[in-house]
């Protein structure tokens, strides 16, 4: 066994470590949530990781995204993530997909043992949830983590048990219309804080969600932990 995984094996056992090595997980979105999720998966020994994003690293990402460094600003997020993950585990099979996911996207769902949805686009989130259910692929979807400060308010439940979160409210409504009866999600019951106007606007002209590393990062780690526990036997 490689020295890098001795302590992991001591916790979950060599058999479970081998299960992770033989598993394939897709991470959609490599921002404050997804970058932490992807890194946790690779550090835990997942053998193949698909990474999806269509954005580039910006200076405004540095406060919360693992892949956002002074040296990576302007780089495709998938490229920055792949370089970082391969540096952590050169044996991990990292498959980069630099694309904006839409219902027209060609996604190899049949290749995935699990999906982590860390995108912030409702259309993409609904597409992933619907297709995952249709194809029988396990998925965990992360709800809104912006405008929040307390990671202790994060929890994992079914989407229909959520409250407070504006994104979760939209997802509940749209999933119900589509006949999706369940979806495991990471969400926070913390009331969102109204962001201050610091002069940053996106194409919509609206103030983007305020955030820092703690809540999105913990949400990504929660999602990765859930996946790891589900892919191994005997871990509650």
In short:
This protein has 236 residues and is of the alpha/beta class.
Description:
The structure is a single chain. The protein is α/β, with parallel strands linked by helices. It has one domain: 3-Layer(aba) Sandwich (Rossmann fold). It is 34% helix and 15% strand. It has 7 helices and 7 strands, in the order ααβαβαββαββαβα. The protein has helices at residues 6-12, 14-21, 34-43, 77-88, 122-135, 166-177, 214-231, and strands at residues 24-28, 48-53, 93-98, 114-117, 139-142, 154-158, 184-188. The chain has a 7-stranded mixed sheet, sandwiched between helices. α1 (6-12) crosses α2 (14-21), α3 (34-43) packs parallel to α4 (77-88) and α5 crosses α6 (166-177). It is globular, with a radius of gyration of 17 Å. The mean pLDDT is 95.
Give a topology summary:
Layout: H1 6-12, H2 14-21, E1 24-28, H3 34-43, E2 48-53, H4 77-88, E3 93-98, E4 114-117, H5 122-135, E5 139-142, E6 154-158, H6 166-177, E7 184-188, H7 214-231
Parallel strand pairs: 1-2, 1-4, 2-3, 4-5, 5-7
Antiparallel strand pairs: 6-7
Give the neighbour order of strands across the main sheet. Answer: 3-2-1-4-5-7-6
Q: Indicate the percent of residues in helices.
A: 25-40%
- What is the typical, i.e. mean, pLDDT? 95
Strand content: 5-15%
Q: How many domains make up the 3D coordinates?
A: 1
**CATH topology-level name:** Rossmann fold
CATH architecture: 3-Layer(aba) Sandwich
Keywords:
single chain, 236 residues, alpha/beta, Rossmann fold, seven-stranded mixed sheet, 15% strand, globular
């Amino acid at each position: 066994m490689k020295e890098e995984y001795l302590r992991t094996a001591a916790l979950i056992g060599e058999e479970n470590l081998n299960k992770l090595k033989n598993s394939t997980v897709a991470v959609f979105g490599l921002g404050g949530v997804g970058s932490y999720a992807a890194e946790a998966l690779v550090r835990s020994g997942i053998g193949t990781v698909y990474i999806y994003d269509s954005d580039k690293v910006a200076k405004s990402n540095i406060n919360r995204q693992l892949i956002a460094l002074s040296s990576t600003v302007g780089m495709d997020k998938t490229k920055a993530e792949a370089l970082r993950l391969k540096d952590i585990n050169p044996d991990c099979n990292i498959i980069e997909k630099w694309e904006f996911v839409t219902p027209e996207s060609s996604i190899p769902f049949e290749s995935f043992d699990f999906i982590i949805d860390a995108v912030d686009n409702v259309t993409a989130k609904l597409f992933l949830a619907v297709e995952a259910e249709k194809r029988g692929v396990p998925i965990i979807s992360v709800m809104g983590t912006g405008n929040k400060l307390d990671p202790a308010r994060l929890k994992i439940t079914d989407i229909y048990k959520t409250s407070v979160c504006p994104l979760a409210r939209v997802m509940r409504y749209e999933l119900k219309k589509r006949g999706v009866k369940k979806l495991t999600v990471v969400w926070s019951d913390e009331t969102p804080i109204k962001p201050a106007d610091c002069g940053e606007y996106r194409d919509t002209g609206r103030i983007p969600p305020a955030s820092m590393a703690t809540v999105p990062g913990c949400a990504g780690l929660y999602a990765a932990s859930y996946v790891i526990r589900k892919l191994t036997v005997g871990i509650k």
